[in-house]
Structures are given as structure tokens and as C-alpha cells.
Amino acid sequence: MTTSILADLKIRFSKAIAAAFGAEYADYDPAVAAAKDTKFGDYQCNAALSLTKKLKQKPQDVAAQIIANLEFADRFEPPTIAGAGFINLKLQLSYIAAHLAEMQKSDRLAIAPVSKPERVIVDFSSPNIAKEMHVGHLRSTIIGDSIARILEFQGHEVLRLNHVGDWGTQFGMLITFLREVYPDALTKADAIAIGDLVELYRQAKKRFDEDPEFKEISRSAVVELQAGGQSAKQAWQLLCEQSRREFQKIYDALNIQLEERGESFYNPFLSDVISDLKATGLLQEDQGALCVFLEGFNNKDGQPLPLIVQKSDGGYNYATTDLAALRYRIREDQATRIIYVTDIGQSAHFAQVFQVAQRADWLPESVQAIHVPFGLVMGDDGKKFKTRSGDTVPLKSLLEEAVTRAYADIDSRNPDAPAEFKKDVANAIGLGAVKYADLSQNRTSNYIFSFDKMLSLQGNTAPYMLYAYVRVQGIGRKGGIDFDRVDFDRVDSAISLTEAPEIALAKHLLQFAEAIDAVAEELFPNRLCQYLFELSQKFNQFFEQCPVLQAEEETIKISRLNLCDITAKTLKLGLGLLGIRVLERM
């Protein structure tokens, strides 16, 4: 097991810089990256130019001293210096072949777990009780899941939390309305369908906004619920359980694992938040409300903007709950990295919550609190993705349509296949296509939702990736090769790299660990998608230009079959980290 080549190179160059110029440079950024132009090499160190001013030496001389102290002979050809002191390195073909052999024998593709695992919380999905999950929850759910999968693969202890909206004024409003129009829904399980419950919620909200008497009764119901009133609590539990079962159907379909901790979980800790903030002297009263005035956030008059943590009527809000949750996750869960996956519209809210937590000394420097924002899903008209009637698109119907379209395509291409086979393939392709179409985007950008594009066998899509995997499996079947039983330690099973497409594919396979590291650090799953897309492209170029089963020599045939096998294993693991299931046949 090894770390990524890039991570290893950073360590080597850091040591070389310190050895060349003194211990005070031990933490100097070595500025190592994969080479943009492979004709110069595979990796490049750009530290010499930035060191020139400090050392008052020519960049070429600085580069030469770094090389003189660099350990490279076990992996790289002798480094070269180009331009203004750029150090270029090229991997030895013998090292590439040896590392590929290690990858092939390992379930983890020879990628070592992190040396210092962290306790990480990923807060994602977060639907609201009595509402259907919609396309906005799709982004949070699958982005959060892919980040959690990658961190788990690295060896971190990951707590996947679902911060469900299951508390607050909306429940008093809904309970009050249902007591009038559908009392059975508050005493009998599943007395009303979730779709009807959503419609009743809308009617209750309209009534709440228009009827002052209804609003007052609703607020009384909230007080009753918060005080533990038996009738209100039973009604609340029934509504939560019904919604929870509907959510679980979608999580099961998407293969998502979550631990629910709704807003109600933190309700007992809200008063402690206020007490602690008072003790720190951060709280100020403003028009009857208790607030923390923020630094760097100003209103239209240029005055510091307050974050309200207790309303003038004594009630709490989202900010109070999020502060209580953050405080609990640090103190009780002992998390050192807390990741929130929500839409980009909440960026300011989380920046404010994090600032208050820092100023209250709840959020120490040793703990990272990170907001992972994402953009909107758009329709073909460039507007927010909605149904023809203007409603938010239910996530359940969107996923069902993706599978239905995938089934129709498979049925048209392979009508004689067994129905169960077509159903399984359609499920994998349809759900995988929806996930991949989202994850392959830069998450901070809006993207246009298109079934036609995401289900296409061409381009950067899940079907293209899945087909590349299936193609490799087909090669093995056609050649009568069971990769699981090949003895890779035999001399005649060694990997030999001679042709340019072979070498390009092999080098890209070695960069898989770097792609995983990049996502774990930067939290952009599209980095892994881009890697897999390029891997599929390089494999197709290799397969088209380098005969595998028709290779002239048996040793070359086996070597190329090994490359095919490692490619398939990398695709399977990579897609699995995105939450996408591969298929043996399509």
C-alpha cells in the first residue's frame, strides 16, 4: 500500500528543499503538480522560481540544488530543468509496471488508508417532514453521500447525519389545520397519503399567512408540542414516522445510508446556547430579540448585521438550532471536521453561524467547519427546474422516469433479453445517470437537467462509464479469462509497456489515488468524475490501437489483459465511490 505519487513527491521535495537550504525551509510549499504538458514529463516542481528572491540566486541554480538533494532513482528518470527553474520528472516504465501489479492484487488498488484518521461529520440531505423530497434534495443527498464514501474509503470515521426539518412553527400550523379538516391523520398511522399531506400542508400555510386567529392557535399548538402535550406529541410522531418511511424509500433506491438527527434532537440544548452566549458577553438585545452582531456583515445602512438567536417572543430559530448542533458535534461527537452540504443560498447563514461559534470559543482552530454549497438544477428554459404546472419536481417521480426511460432504451436495443435482466440494467443505468449527471458538474454551478444527455452512451455520462466497464468484462469473457483466478505473480503475467496508448493508460491509472485525495481535500466530486471520464477515453484509445486478444505474442496479450483488468477495477471502485453500481453486461 502506498500514498499517491503526488503526495509522495511533495514529501520528497519538501525534504530536498530543507536539505538544500536549511531547516527553516522545512515547511516551504514545494509547488508540485502533475505536468500540464506531458511532453516535458509527468510531474513538475515549480518551487525554484519563488525561492529565487529569498535566496538571491538564479532559479536554475536553485533548481539544481534541489535536485542534488532529491531522492528519485526508485521511481523517476533523472530530473530535467526547463525555463525559469521548472523541475520536470518522468516516471520510470519499470516502476509504473510494478505499481500496476500491486494495484491489480489489491482490493483497494494499493491505495493506503490515511495515517491519521479523523472523526468527520457529513451533514446532508435534510428534507422536511410533511413535504416530499424534491430535486433540490437530490443534490444535497448524492453530493453528501459521495463525499462520505470517499472519506470512508480513506479510512476516516464518518458520521453521516440527516438534519431533518422536524420541529418548529410549521408543526403547530399543520397540527391545527389537520385537527379541523382531517383529525384521523393525527391519531392513525398512514391515514392519509404523503402526497395529500403535502397538499394539506400548502393549504395550512396559506391559512396561516391569511388568518390571524388561525396563526395564533397554531402558535399555541407549538407551545403545546414543546411542552410535551400528549395529543400534539402523538400527532407530531405520526407525521414524522409517515414522512420518514417515504424518505427511506428514496434512500433505499439510491443506496444512501444516513443517521437521522432532526432539529428536534437539539431542542433540549437551545437554552444552553443562549446561556453560553450571555456568559461570553456576545449577546445584545435589539428590539426585544437577543442577537449577536456580526463582523463583516452589514445592513444597507452599513451597520453590523445581527444574527438573531432568540426572538422577541422567546422562541428560537434555525440559527439557534444550528449553533446547538455545531456545539454538540464538537463537544459530544468529538468531530474534527464538520461538513455541511446545502444549497448555495445558505452560504451567508453558515458563515454567520461559524463566526458566532468561533467568537464563543466553541469552534477551536483544531476543528474545521465547512459549508459545501451547490447551485440550482435548471430546466431547458434556463429557469429553476419545475413541473409544467410550476410545482417543484418530486424526487420520487424524477427517479422513476429516469429508470423508465432507461428501460425503454434497453428494450429497444435488446428486446429478447429477460425482463428481470432489463429491469436490473435499467435501474442501474437510470439511477446512475441521474447521480453522475449531477456529480460531474462543478457543484457550485447551476446545471440544466436533461434526461437525453444524462442517458446518452456518448460523452461524460454514467452510461458511457458503465459501458467501458462492461466492455472490459466482455473482453475477458471472449478470451476465456477469469481475472479473479489469474496468478499475477507469474513472470509471464508481467505487465510490459511499449506502445504510447499503453503508457498513457498506465500512467493515468496511477493517478487514481491523486483524484481521490483531491476530492477529499477540496470536496468537489466532479474531480473524480473527470478522472473516470478521461480513464474511459484513454482505455478506448488503447483498445482501438493495441490488439488485446489478437496480440501477436502471448506475453503481450496477457500484459494487455492485465491493463484491461486494472482499468475495470478502477472504474468499479471509482464509480462505487460516487454511489454508482456497475454492470457485468448491458
TrEMBL record:
Coiled-coil residue windows: none
Subcellular location: Cytoplasm
Record protein name field: Arginine--tRNA ligase
Upper lineage: Bacteria, Bacillati, Cyanobacteriota, Cyanophyceae, Pseudanabaenales
Residue stretches making up the DALR anticodon binding domain: 465-586
Family to which this protein belongs: Belongs to the class-I aminoacyl-tRNA synthetase family.
Subunit structure and binding partners: Monomer.
PROSITE patterns tied to this protein: AA_TRNA_LIGASE_I (PS00178)
Pfam families: Arg_tRNA_synt_N, DALR_1, tRNA-synt_1d
Keyword Aminoacyl-tRNA synthetase: yes
EC number: 6.1.1.19
CDD domains registered for this protein in UniProt: ArgRS_core
SUPFAM superfamilies: Anticodon-binding domain of a subclass of class I aminoacyl-tRNA synthetases, Arginyl-tRNA synthetase (ArgRS), N-terminal 'additional' domain, Nucleotidylyl transferase
Catalyzed chemical reaction(s): tRNA(Arg) + L-arginine + ATP = L-arginyl-tRNA(Arg) + AMP + diphosphate
Transmembrane segments: none
